[in-house]
Amino acid sequence: xxxxxxxxxxxVDITDQGEGVSCFGKMPDGVGVFVDGKCVPGDKVxxxxxQVNPNMLRANLVDIITPAAERITPSCPHFNQCGGxxxxxxxxxxxxxxxxxRVKDALERIGHSTGFELRPVIGSPATEGYRNKLTFTCDDxxxxxYHLPGDAQAILPINNCLLGDETMxxxxxxxxxxxxxxxxxxxxxxxxKYQALINNLPTKIDGLPVTIKKHLEERLLNFTYxxxxxxxxxxxxxxxxxMVRESLxxxxxxxxxxxxELYCGLGTFSLPFASxxxxxxxxxxxKQAVKDAETNARLNHLSNCNFxxxxxxxxxxxxxxxxxxxxxxxxLTDPPRAGMPGHLCDILLDIGAKRILYISCNPATLxxxxxxxxxxxxxxxxxxxxxxxxxxHVECVALLxxxx
Length: 404
Hints:
- By secondary structure, this protein is an alpha/beta fold.
- The chain has three domains: 9-66, CATH 2.40.50.140; 93-125 and 235-402, Vaccinia Virus protein VP39 (Rossmann fold), CATH 3.40.50; 133-227, CATH 2.40.50.1070.
- It is built from eight helices and 22 strands.
- The strands form four sheets. It has an eight-stranded mixed β-sheet, sandwiched between helices. Strands 7, 8, 9, 10, 11, 12 and 13 form a seven-stranded mixed β-sheet that branches. Strands 1-2-3-5-4 form a five-stranded mixed beta barrel.
- Helix 1 (92-110) runs parallel beside helix 8 (363-372).
- The longest helix is centred in the N-terminal third of the chain and has 19 residues, at 92-110.
């Protein structure tokens, strides 16, 4: 094995896309290299070693020696600095292939799953202008934009963001003279209405369709959602609706079934599932989200669901068994990127529902949790859905069935 040292420059062929702006290649002697920089599989690059381990190197991109044949020119002028759309340098169909491989590799290598059906990634109809929420910061010098990756203080000036539509960018321009510290722009696809929150306060903007109501309303599958200013809602509305539809198709809730939902939020999945089952009980750490879920259930005339504020990531998660009051046929879980804590997986194993529908934004933690549940459950089908085009992120809807 050759001897490598920090700050030494090496030439390496990039073979695989990694997380974020990290790609992977191998040296002639078989040593793997993770290169941090916006590379593309197929690039030959020069990189400077930053970390040396026995069978792996980490390096920073210095230059692209020979670009990959499929490399394309990014559409955003901020691409080289912004930490947002990291994958604009590859065609979208290739991006979907990479995301498919990432899901497959995670399930097989981390989850040790076999025999499941992995469906092709459902691509987003739009790769620009798809976000329904943008957040901007203004620093002490009056610079307005996004935080630079790796530097919580520095702001990258943004004139127009291609993730938002024309009206969202018009709102940004109109708000530049207000002296804000934080600007949040939200959009309702259904109503064609926008909300501008300057320093967390709804603000009226003449000449633009901006509501000053506290809540913004959205619709998915004919269900109405009232969204509080700080509430979480999937940022790609059209793909969120597709994800709910695919979830229903996979889980197939029945009129006589009872459902337990974990990490229910404001009820994105709760409402469609409650309309198709006997009873649904949801749990969520945020008290405000629980209030929103209760409001949304009333708005949609659903009386067979109720919600409780419980921090599922802490020991108090044990209390939800007592509040549940029944054994569910189906469990829905939609945890954050960290996945479910081990104690929660143990509780699900003890409950023993016939089916678990696991909605995940992180294939690695999804695969880990599937293995944790493998004593009683087997992965049946997984449907990846791209809610975040031009980024490394991919959502998955996974159906687990109790073993015979």
